[in-house]
Amino acid sequence: NDMLRWQRSGFHFQPEKNWMNDPNGPLYYKGFYHLFYQYNPDSAVWGNITWGHAISTDLIHWKYLPISMKPDQWYDINGVWTGSATILPDGKIMMVYTGDTDKFVQVQNLAYPANLSDPLLLDWVKYPGNPVLTPPEGIGAKDFRDPTTAWVGPDGIWRLIIGSKTGTTGISLVYKTKDFKTYELESNLHAVPGTGMWECVDFYPVSITGQNGLDTSAYGSGMKHLLKASLDDNKQDHYALGTYDMTTQTWTPDNPDMDVGLGLRLDYGKYYASKTFFDQNKQRRILWGWVGETDTEADDLLKGWASLQTIPRVVTYDAKTGTNILQWPVKEVESLRTDSREYDNLLLQPGSIINLDIASGAQLDISAEFVVDQEALKLTVGDDVINNCSAAAVRQALGPFGLLVLADESLSELTPIYFYIAKASDGTVKNWFCTDQSRSSKASSVDKQIYGGPVPVLEGEKYSMRLLVDHSIIEAFGQGGRTCITSRIYPTKAINGNAKVFIFNNATDSSVTASVKIWELDSINLSPYIF
Ligand code: DQQ
């Protein structure tokens, strides 16, 4: 059991004990950020789902509050499932969530704070008229869940989306309401054949003219709308940018080939059931994501806990590519930075590896830039086209190169995070951002897959990555957050003070010049709120 204790994170949000999954109803209210989450108070595996609750003033330091909603009504007795918050212009808060009923039917319920003058939002009232929505004609009793935050149209009517499926087509049903108590089905916002059940749909505007976030109700020029679905079939969060039409209540992707479920993922690692909210305090849109375990259930039971939430990420539009969003850890995480080390212009010859001499590499914030030898890039003619991430040890002309984190001194355990440059014989270059877990742990029963996705690297740009390393989780942001990869790593040796950082270039033909800055990060000391 001792072996498992260090796996707890130092600065990520996680419950004191037991199981957590989806983030629920995040919001900012009277000086506090609130995070609710799917929580099993009795065990480190899923079940008996309640809403756990925590608050923070900076999105980084959290205090646990008592469970806010429990399964205690016929309409949620089998679980108080995922939902979202809507703050009305008069300050009222509407929490709409899915209940799993006594007969295992998925229905939508309304809850609101008992006392709006309590900034802690401790007590929640379930509306006596619940459920407010039951599965419509033609929709399965177990395929109707996870209401979004609502937005209000120029017609003064509120709308929200509930994810579902018909056959194997993922769908997103738009309901309209004036009071959050009675609803009318209005349209199917968007559907994608073959994507299966859409869980935890998220739908919001993204400014294409500025870095600020937009209120969920913003509508008009200067924005695109992002539609996200969590695909139940493969447990991946997929999104696409497109245009929302209020007259037809439909949404059209910018690029049909990159429709929801066919193209971009929010995160190419262990990441699911994410949800955003508009932070009216700092005018930004914040994204939360659930990061599960990739060890065994038996180990989770031994540890007594399972799952983390990502560090909250700010979502902005990538005006340079025009095709994707950028995700970046909230600025507040930088308040945890302590000792730092900087390396400028490290020349990495083909096949080189350098120990960056970090005393204790279990809690780090790393920022690295790489410049690939332009001559080699020009001269290399491809036979090395790969269409995904190969293992970090597989050497090609132009890569991989990157960092090794959670590595012990002797490199018996290591996790490479790296770029691969694939150059086709016609000269086209495709870039990949990857995390290779195959040598992360001596333990045999943990996930060892290689994660990764394509990453746009534009003319004149350096290759860049930011990493947040926290004992058993690594959040990796490629090219300013164009491509993100979250992984769970369970080393047995590269722990605490034995965790080191290396930089490497495994290319055969090109040298790489790198600049790296590494900060150690403080712990947040999660604890219950003292009343
Ligand atoms: N988790 C909740 C559901 C949701 C799923 C149940 C996604 O509402 O669809 O815990 O992880």
Automatic annotation (TrEMBL):
The keyword Hydrolase applies. Keywords: Glycoprotein, Glycosidase, Hydrolase, Membrane, Transmembrane, Transmembrane helix, Vacuole. Residues 12-329 form the Glycosyl hydrolase family 32 N-terminal domain. Residues 332-520 form the Glycosyl hydrolase family 32 C-terminal domain. GO terms for cellular component: vacuolar lumen. One of its GO terms (biological process) is carbohydrate metabolic process. Its EC number is 3.2.1.26. One of its GO terms (molecular function) is beta-fructofuranosidase activity. It is found in: Vacuole lumen. It is an enzyme of class 3 (hydrolase). The keyword Membrane applies. Belongs to the glycosyl hydrolase 32 family. This is beta-fructofuranosidase. It comes from Beta vulgaris subsp. vulgaris (Beet).
